Amino acid sequence: MSEPRLVFIKTYGCQMNVYDSDRMADILAAEGYSTAERPEDADLVLLNTCHIREKAAEKVYSEIGRLRALKKSARTDGRDMRIAVAGCVAQAEGEEILKRAPAVDVVVGPQSYHRLPALLARGARAVETEFPAESKFDHLPERGTAAPGPTRVLPLQPVSAFLTVQEGCDKFCTFCVVPYTRGAEVSRPVARIVEEAEALAARGVKDIMLLGQNVNAYHGEGPDGETWSLAKLLTRLSQIDAIARLRYTTSHPRDMSDDLIAAHRDLDKVMPYLHLPVQSGSDRVLAAMNRKHDRAFYLQLVERLRAARPDLALSGDFIVGFPGETDEDFDHTMQLIEKVRYASAFSFKYSPRPGTPAAEREQVPDVVKAERLTRLQALIAEQQRDFNAGMRGLTTDVLLEKPGKHPGQLVGKSPWLQAVQVDAPRALLGEIVTVTITGIGTHSLYGALADGNAHERAIA
Ligand code: 5AD
Ligand code: SF4
């Protein structure tokens, strides 16, 4: 190990970027880096970028502009600060970043971050955005090796964790950059995922969110040499005693196979929550988006899922104002939402992403997009309120994760992924407790410990 150094990592975008940043911290820990709280303290500033939203690249360039000033003042103090850009903007822009931003030392795509130490060691400015032949997962150190820096208070030991099982996408929806930035679909072997889940469990993790851009297309190599489905993987992970809760995201309707639907019925540890984006309720728009499913297929799928797990909390993604979307198309989306009744959803105005087919098409005016988005979000908010209101009086399990808003409160997660504020002693942090829901707020539920929880038994 070389001399101690500090890295500051700034993460944009999705849950997979959060996972990737964590793993990059592990890789850099092996090079002597611990984590800094502030960029001005760091020897290396790493931006883990996201390309899904509009002007993503512009935002990265302006962030680099701010860092350039820090780099300059570090140099005045006789220190060397290096800047690395990782993630999907790095992949999409590549060399362009080195050209436009002289302050940047290293550009590394999401499939190449295991090469970060080698790129840094080169000394010269470097870019690595070719999709490598090897899997980065085979070159990562053990998880959780990253140490907090000298100024850092040790964080609470988390009880929930992300675990990437699949990456990339072969679907090529016409609005989406993911197949270009994350590359083709790749699934990690079952044995490696089980190893990582067992290591998380040994560190006190009880709740795992499996990640993949198209997670339910998972087809990893099993220990028996066969190809395993996500349902089979969930069955195997359910056997890890200390893991109590499993979820997965994001799923494509086309890949929601019979065995996965059955897993929601048969596996107690698979939580009643599913993020299942539909994007639009109009068949015309779905076809133009190249979604590979229509409205009827989606609605039937929702019925089958609810037959397997009646209390399933459904979440989704919606795009409004996709090129060619008429008022009638949008009405179809609103009608689909009425039919499905979501527990939550994310919604976006369509934004043209350079290099994707839909970016070339005639665009819907922004005022129209904005008006549709407002209406859609109001409907989703109403459904979310109804879903949450249905919980009043219910007694359910809550995993207590961290201190709550007020002293004497802890905040946890319900099986349906709602935040629950509970009056509970700190000693119960990290425990799954039985809670009766007593109140419904805008962003969280309120609950009281039910009789028979471990601490009450201890006191009695
Ligand atoms: N414009 C608007 N929303 C988009 N999404 C992906 N690409 C675009 C785009 N070009 C949304 C989709 C996807 C979510 C992660 O982001 O709804 O499911
Ligand atoms: Fe993008 Fe998801 Fe479509 Fe893949 S399935 S192209 S990740 S929206």
Q: What does the model show?
A:
The structure is a single chain. With 460 residues, this protein is of the alpha/beta class. It folds into 3 domains: 5-139, 3-Layer(aba) Sandwich (Rossmann fold); 156-389, pyruvate-formate lyase- activating enzyme; 395-459, OB fold (Dihydrolipoamide Acetyltransferase, E2P), CATH 2.40.50.140. The protein contains 14 helices and 21 strands. The chain has helices at 15-29, 56-76, 87-93, 95-100, 116-121, 178-181, 190-202, 230-238, 258-266, 283-288, 295-308, 327-340, 366-389, 454-459; strands at 5-11, 33-35, 44-49, 82-86, 106-108, 126-128, 160-164, 166-167, 186-187, 207-211, 220-221, 227-228, 245-249, 273-275, 313-320, 344-349, 395-403, 409-413, 419-423, 432-440, 445-449. The protein has a 6-stranded parallel β-sheet with strand order 2-1-3-4-5-6, sandwiched between helices. Helix 8 packs parallel to helix 9 and helix 12 (327-340) packs parallel to helix 13. It is globular, with a radius of gyration of 23 Å. The protein starts with a strand and ends with a helix. The relative contact order is 0.08. The model has no long low-confidence stretch (mean pLDDT 92). 5'-deoxyadenosine binds at residues 52, 175-176, 277, 279, 317, 319, 348, 350-351, 353. 5'-deoxyadenosine (5AD) binds at residues 52, 175-176, 277, 279, 317, 319, 348, 350-351, 353.
